[in-house]
């Protein structure tokens, strides 16, 4: 492997809650240290601009298209990342000379790999110029161009995390962001990964539309409601769930409007259980033996009702949060993009046939170097 590099990862997820920042020291294979983390929340006005871009994005015919709504959101996303990075570096006494690379995911506006389209908003060159540090960005494009799903990208990092903390396979990392994805680390060390279905996006959108709140904090509304079993059975009969991986999902594939006939709490209960049932459907592709342990990260790890339902639905396994495994549930994806940036610099693969359907292990990412 190459030399140990100090990398900063930056992630703006499909939940649109803010910009996560994390420092990782790695050679692109092993994780040598997980450093400090930081989150810069989006202001509501910034979220509104990003939401407008997501609503406009399905009309894109080219991944480099930037009609006004997307151009405005790209400026907002880039400026927010610059501000978050400056605050993070100041808080931790870091200068540009202390950092080898920044891994920049950007904000996904559209993900339709079947059409060869994956669009992450964010100007990597502008971030490199502002930081004075090389930036690796656009990490999904090479995989999609080769016929892969372009997602999930984090599985190779999940495997490195498992080695770092001594978690023995078979196990699963379940990331519940706006969309949920799973990495199965099989007993032989092999990886299988894919999006399981909706994560927090449906219930977040439901709460925003019906209650004017950004999320169901702690799952309180879902815990108070009664799920619509007929609707759940109809939703989980969607062909997506029986299709074998690789597969990945756009945030807006499913709509909270399917629960429009329900009261607030009943809709939250139904949509939260939809996420959990999608996870249980994923077990069909886990291999034998199935995971003995599930490590839950992302925003869903803070949803007490979601965690209760997962434990109820997976009684033969131990279901814990990343924090209970000694990890930071909120920053694993930001950490992953630091790790992936170093892998990109080293020419190591980011994606694999069993994680994205790539035709072969593929590296990826575009490197922007600061212009002096």
UniProtKB/TrEMBL annotation:
Catalytic activity as recorded in UniProt: 1,6-anhydro-N-acetyl-beta-muramate + ATP + H2O = N-acetyl-D-muramate 6-phosphate + ADP + H(+)
EC number annotated for this UniProt entry: 2.7.1.170
Gene3D superfamilies assigned: 3.30.420.40
UniProt keyword annotation of rRNA processing present: no
Gene Ontology molecular functions: kinase activity
Annotated keywords: ATP-binding, Carbohydrate metabolism, Kinase, Nucleotide-binding, Transferase
Residues binding ATP: 13-20
InterPro entries listed in its UniProt record: Anhydro_N_Ac-Mur_kinase, ATPase_NBD
Pfam families per UniProt: AnmK (PF03702)
Associated pathway: Amino-sugar metabolism; 1,6-anhydro-N-acetylmuramate degradation; Cell wall biogenesis; peptidoglycan recycling
Similarity-based family: Belongs to the anhydro-N-acetylmuramic acid kinase family.
Function: Catalyzes the specific phosphorylation of 1,6-anhydro-N-acetylmuramic acid (anhMurNAc) with the simultaneous cleavage of the 1,6-anhydro ring, generating MurNAc-6-P. Is required for the utilization of anhMurNAc either imported from the medium or derived from its own cell wall murein, and thus plays a role in cell wall recycling.
Protein name: Anhydro-N-acetylmuramic acid kinase
Organism field: Camelimonas abortus
Lineage: Bacteria, Pseudomonadati, Pseudomonadota, Alphaproteobacteria, Hyphomicrobiales
């Amino acid at each position: 492997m190459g030399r140990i590099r100090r990398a900063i990862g930056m992630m703006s997820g499909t939940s649109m809650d803010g910009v996560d920042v994390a420092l990782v020291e790695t050679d692109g294979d092993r994780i040598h240290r997980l450093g400090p983390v930081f989150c810069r929340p989006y202001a509501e006005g910034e979220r509104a601009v990003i939401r407008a871009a997501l609503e406009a994005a399905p009309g894109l015919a080219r991944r480099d298209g930037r009609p006004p709504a997307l151009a405005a959101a790209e400026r907002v996303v880039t400026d927010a990342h610059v501000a978050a990075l400056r605050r993070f570096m100041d808080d931790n006494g870091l200068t540009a000379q202390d950092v080898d690379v920044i891994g920049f995911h950007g904000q996904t506006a559209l993900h339709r790999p079947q059409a060869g389209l994956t669009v992450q908003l964010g100007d990597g060159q502008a971030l490199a110029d502002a930081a004075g540090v090389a930036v690796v960005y656009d990490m999904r494009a090479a995989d999609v161009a080769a016929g892969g799903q372009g997602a999930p990208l984090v599985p190779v990092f999940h495997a490195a995390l498992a080695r770092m903390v001594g978690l023995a396979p078979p196990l699963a990392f379940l990331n519940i962001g706006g969309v949920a994805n799973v990495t199965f680390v099989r007993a032989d060390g092999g990886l299988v990964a894919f999006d399981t279905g909706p994560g927090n996006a449906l219930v977040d959108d439901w709460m925003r539309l019906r209650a004017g709140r950004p999320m169901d904090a702690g799952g309180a509304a879902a815990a108070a409601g009664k799920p619509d079993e007929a609707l759940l059975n109809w939703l989980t009969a969607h062909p997506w769930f029986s299709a074998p991986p690789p597969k990945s999902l756009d945030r807006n594939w499913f709509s909270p409007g399917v629960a429009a006939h329900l009261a607030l709490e009943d809709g939250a209960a139904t949509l939260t259980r939809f996420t959990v049932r999608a996870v249980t459907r994923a077990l069909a592709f886990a291999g034998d033996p199935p995971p003995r342990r599930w490590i839950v990260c992302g925003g869903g790890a803070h949803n007490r009702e979601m965690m209760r339902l997962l434990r109820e639905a997976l009684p033969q396994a131990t279901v814990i949060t990343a924090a209970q495994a000694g990890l930071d549930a909120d920053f694993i994806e930001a950490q992953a993009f630091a790790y992936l940036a170093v892998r990109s610099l080293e020419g190591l693969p980011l994606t694999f046939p069993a994680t994205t359907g790539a035709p072969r292990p593929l590296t990826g990412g575009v490197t922007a170097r600061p212009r002096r």
